[in-house]
């Protein structure tokens, strides 16, 4: 702690210190009416500037704006201390946070997927309110006594923008920050938050940040070049599915255009991995276009009318009969005491279902008999039978990286939903403008290609995934590098 005494706050009784950050200390207080524990974040007086004070006020307003979300830490109030300082009163989450947990224990893939979807829900909600978090990392994800994550520390959140908009007093957490933010090309946007969320999930699986080298130099100045140029390493865990490795690598693409463009898109990818691994599905909770809460329990099927709209999905079937036309739970009902009955419509519906099933069984039996003159009945897909489908059933846009090598440039790429038989088509040119007109190069095996060029010569390329079904992915963004 900074040594700053915990302030006297009306209605609150000091209990103990909780921690200290760059510009604030956090204390545990007991609220007297109603009696409950709360966390109080108090500005440090040392080094206090107008920018930090403004940042603190912005954090209070931002968190209050998002306070209703189940996975965002709730702010109860904000005020000034008697000596002119400032404080926030927030919901108390007992330790450890996710950074402490990941350091002390090995989190399961199931928990990381579930937490990732829930945090992505919070991030997507913030984005829809026009707010970029800018500091997503394991230490900023608290855990309630019921095991629910709570995203906190919106201290450097803002509306996004370019490097010239960055306040000199606003810092970033290097190990989990996107390269375009670290190198001043962006002040953060939805895609940089997607990167930080993916880096956070990678950290939760491994116990350290993605580009940290155990026993090596992990200072900010050593990490930054690795984040900018080194491919995302594998987690090294045998229980982490390949689909999750690829999704995290995709979400941490060096070029922001190569990542999932929204937190919701990343959440749907995580849901797909849950389905692939036969894990319980985790709902995405966001505000829809009308400002109402919408729950999306599963990724929408391809071909849906509105790919980006979330919807309410039924997760279970009632065990008791429900009368036709009965109001949904929570709606007005004319006679609350009237017993539930089964109408004739339900009986007829059940009989029709039995007939349909019987006919289906007969048709299946006839076709199984092998009559040559009759077309076979299409086999149901895994998703139709209720069994988990694969994470992605069509190739997504790949993320491409470039690395200078002696006498050329090596391009490598990754994507979600790889299948046996996939191959790749590259276009390589001497400039970005030349790439779209370049001759297509087919790569049958592997996910890398080295273009030969004289030292110092710029080489640019983009790649797409092709599948035996004839369904290709979109081309990746164009990546350029000077030959070594």
Automatic annotation (TrEMBL):
The keyword Membrane applies. Keywords: ATP-binding, Kinase, Membrane, Nucleotide-binding, Serine/threonine-protein kinase, Transferase, Transmembrane, Transmembrane helix. Gene3D superfamilies: Transferase(Phosphotransferase) domain 1. It comes from the Bacteria. Residues 316-337, 372-392 are annotated as: Disordered. GO terms for molecular function: ATP binding; protein serine/threonine kinase activity. The chain crosses the membrane at residues 346-366. Residues 317-328 have a biased composition (Low complexity). It holds the Pfam family Pkinase. ATP binds at residue 41. This is Serine/threonine protein kinase. InterPro entries: Kinase-like_dom_sf, Prot_kinase_dom, Protein_kinase_ATP_BS, Ser/Thr_kinase_AS. The lineage of its organism: Bacteria, Bacillati, Actinomycetota, Actinomycetes, Micrococcales. Residues 12-273 form the Protein kinase domain.
